[in-house]
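[Q] Does anyone have a clean structure-token version of this?
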Amino acid sequence: EGIRDYMAYCAGLVQKYPDRFIGCFTYNPRFGVEEGVAELEFHVKEYGFKAMKIHSNMHAYRPDRALDWLRPALRKCADLGIVVLLHTGDGPYSIPTQFYPIIREFRDVNFVICHFGVQTGGVYTFEALWMVIDSPNVYVESGWCLQSRLVEFAPAIPKDRLLLGTDSPPNEPGMWIYELAVLCQDYPQGCNLSEEDLE
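[A] Here you go.
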């Protein structure tokens, strides 16, 4: 019941506007692991959700020490073929490399490092960079990343694994779109990225 209440707003939007929204299930193991896995499957099959988000900082657990909480949900994600989003940038429980154990164990699951390892609680952009370079099942989204780091990192990241992110609300999405578009300009604001690569 608690999980359904927690997900009701998102489920309602997906049902009302299926052409505009894609559902993402927030997995909180503190509701119960078995219950969470069952509700994940329900939301994927009933509402067509396409992703699961892990927000370990909000739910107060270290992902590298809570593997018994995470493994059942990740097995279900692998079975269902859905993407896993990882909230990162806040200490002490969402530092990007704390997710390495599950990323390495579940190579058949695609992970998105949200916020490029940046939030108000920390800046872990270099960790996020090396994780996306080292692991073919890891993607990174641009929201919150410093412009200077995007200029430095964009040439090193496979183009299909750097995603537009806005983290909106509360952010203004146009700003984050422009932060990627400016990469097509000359240094130092850009890195002479081609329009094709930008797309």
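[Q] Thanks! Anything notable?
[A] The chain is about 40% helix and 15% strand.
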